[in-house]
Amino acid sequence: MLILNIYEHFLLTDGLKPCYSVEHRKGADKLIQLRDALIELLGNDRVLPDIATEHYAYDWWPVAAKWRNQGKSPLRPEVVVRPQNVDDIQKLLRWANTNQIAITPWGAGSSVTGAPLPLNGGITLDLSGINRTLSINTQNLTVTVDSGKMGHILESELNQQGYTLNHSPQSLDRSTAGGWLSTRATGQFSSKWGGIEQLVVGFDVVLPNGDLVKFESGPRMAVGPDLRHVFIGAEGTMGVITRVTLQIFRQSPHRILEALAFDNLADGITVMREIMQRGLHPFLLRFYNPAESRYAMKDTAFVQCAMFIGVEGEPTIAEAEFKVCQSIWQQYSVQELGTAPVERWMQHRFDFSTVENILRRPGGLAETIEVAHYWDGIQNTFDRLMEALSIFGIEVLAHFSHTYPQGTSLYMILLGERANDAEAEATLLQIWQTAMRVTLDTGAVLSHHHGIGVVRKDFVSEALGSSMTVLEQIKHTLDSQNILSPGKLGLPTK
Fold this sequence. Notes:
- Helix 14 packs antiparallel against helix 15 (421-441).
- By secondary structure, the chain is an alpha+beta fold.
- 36% of the residues lie in helices and 21% in strands.
- The longest helix is centred in the first third of the chain and has 21 residues, at 22-42.
- The radius of gyration is 23 Å and the shape is globular.
- The chain has 4 domains: 7-128, Uridine Diphospho-n-acetylenolpyruvylglucosamine Reductase, domain 2 (2-Layer Sandwich); 129-250, Uridine Diphospho-n-acetylenolpyruvylglucosamine Reductase, domain 3, CATH 3.30.465.10; 254-347, Alpha-Beta Plaits (2-Layer Sandwich); 353-455, 2-Layer Sandwich (GMP Synthetase, Chain A, domain 3), CATH 3.30.300.330.
- The chain has helices at residues 7-10, 22-42, 62-70, 86-99, 151-159, 177-183, 190-193, 196-199, 265-277, 290-296, 315-329, 340-347, 353-360, 375-390, 421-441, 460-464, 468-478; strands at residues 79-81, 103-106, 123-126, 133-137, 142-146, 163-164, 200-206, 212-216, 240-247, 249-250, 254-262, 284-288, 305-313, 334-338, 364-374, 395-403, 407-417.
- Strands 14-11-13-12-16-17-15 form a 7-stranded antiparallel beta sheet, with helices on both faces.
- It is built from 17 helices and 17 strands.
């Protein structure tokens, strides 16, 4: 299979200075031929200038931030194409399939795992050019958008009419509808409203051969297997999502918030489990270890575990639900702290600046790792991760959120410092190796909502076990030339 990677041919390790050997010249000629072919196929306005490829060599993965600081771009595309309609995408995939050129879809580049970065160069397919809101159906409570629609813009449009997505990832203002499906995303209020797999109604996808396929399910469908799930969470390996229909909701008329302080972690986990297993559905349920509680409470002297809880809906129902939740936590040694801490969090819940600012500093080290487990295993996973990650001499914050009757997610935030960016990069990779090993050994799942990307890909086969063969066979059937995001999800790179 021909996969172009011009940086192996004519750029030195700093990614800046050209070298003019015969081999490098041949590589440059191939790149020119690729660009010319794409311009002829799609038009000059669809093919971005060469300099644009640098932007698409980095997402929000902390390792990529360290690469950027060092002037490195090991996962840089040869060419970036920005289609303006579905026909452009179909043309491109047909051509790439015939010519065996790798294509990696790009939504808004907000992944924190390297998901939109090309492992083998080739073409990055920037979908931001297709970004319309196509329809809002207030009778069926659905919205249909192009896959490149930005989340915060869509949410604002719905709010103006009294509706909401009830999908609120921290990356709402830097992620797209198509990206949510591709990474199987979830939002901060998923304990009540569900992840994107529950919120999606249907979508269109262009297959690797250029065919356009439409998936619709109605309110529910029992016509064979739910084929949508071949593409939800596939991270661009099975097809290119072009149109998305999502549920929408009337904005809740009433909310009740409360912050709680617990003396120990075990009691808080038990309260979360009891709330979810009683059939209650708080839209907000977050529980912090003492290290992160200080940040959540904006109080460096806070030494307890903090819990934020919120219920919403029709006033009489919300009030009743809150009272039942309250009756559960009042069985334990708990201090009620009022609404102010939760209100502050609600106002700043999309703020990612703490991690971003640390990563911009030379040697700054920051990472987020989210896993999930059943209730009977989550405490052990937490303890093992805390022990294993603390040896790196970093601050380890943790909270439990995205709760279910069967279990919960565990979100780790790691903050530290190294002598320089090269050391920080090496430490980040060691951290991931350590965390994923502990996760697998304790029976937890590798990812709750950030997906696989580059950083988790080598662990997928072990995590999926015997079911990995199903993924491999689906990939081979849909994409026999392996042109879409080769190497992702632990699938073959070539």
